[in-house]
Design brief:
- The radius of gyration is 16 Å and the shape is globular.
- The protein is α+β, with helices and mostly antiparallel strands.
- The protein contains 3 helices and 8 strands; from the N terminus they run ββββαββββαα.
- Its EC number is 3.6.1.-.
- This is RNA pyrophosphohydrolase.
Length: 166
């Protein structure tokens, strides 16, 4: 499903732990890392797509996470010309994404990258909050910067509440 401007609707997922770190995932068989993300199927809401992708990519369900926030707007990135599949119709020139910020309320052992017949991710680690902005592939960097800036106050507040409970 490609929109009239050539963008594929997609969800992006930032999962944080109680320490305010974020889950950083390695693309299957590659050396590139990113947040879990995936397309929105016809008839699916962004939230439904988020929960489906959450399970397919990292093996987590609703009971393992708490939704803390979602992006106010769709955020877009264009694919580099070398990655555009010009032979498909309609041509997809990039992704438009609705982002979700989740807190892992389960355990690290709940994370399982093998829940799909064709896993898209094959490794993960917890990293500092701003680390992904510097490390993601260059064409996604602006979207990552914008979404992390939007979610920062929520993560800071969540981390402060967690620390006060100790």
């Amino acid at each position: 499903m490609i929109d009239d401007d050539g963008y594929r609707p997609n969800v992006g997922i930032v999962i944080c732990n109680r320490q305010g770190q974020v889950l950083w995932a390695r693309r299957h068989g590659q050396h590139s890392w990113q947040f879990p993300q995936g397309g929105i199927n016809p008839g699916e809401t962004p939230e439904q797509a988020m929960y489906r992708e959450l399970f397919e990519e990292v093996g987590l369900s609703r009971k393992n996470v708490r939704v803390l926030a979602s992006s106010r707007n769709w955020l877009r990135y264009k694919l580099p010309k070398r990655l555009v599949r010009w032979d498909t119709k309609p041509v997809c020139i990039g992704q438009k994404q609705r982002w979700f910020l989740l807190q892992l309320i389960g355990n690290d052992t709940d994370i399982n990258m093998q829940c799909s017949n064709v896993p898209e991710l094959d490794g993960w680690l917890w990293v500092s909050y701003w680390y992904p902005v510097r490390q993601v592939v260059s064409f996604k960097r602006d979207v990552y910067r914008r979404v992390m800036k939007e979610f920062a106050t929520t993560v800071i507040a969540m981390h402060a509440i967690t620390n006060n409970r100790r």
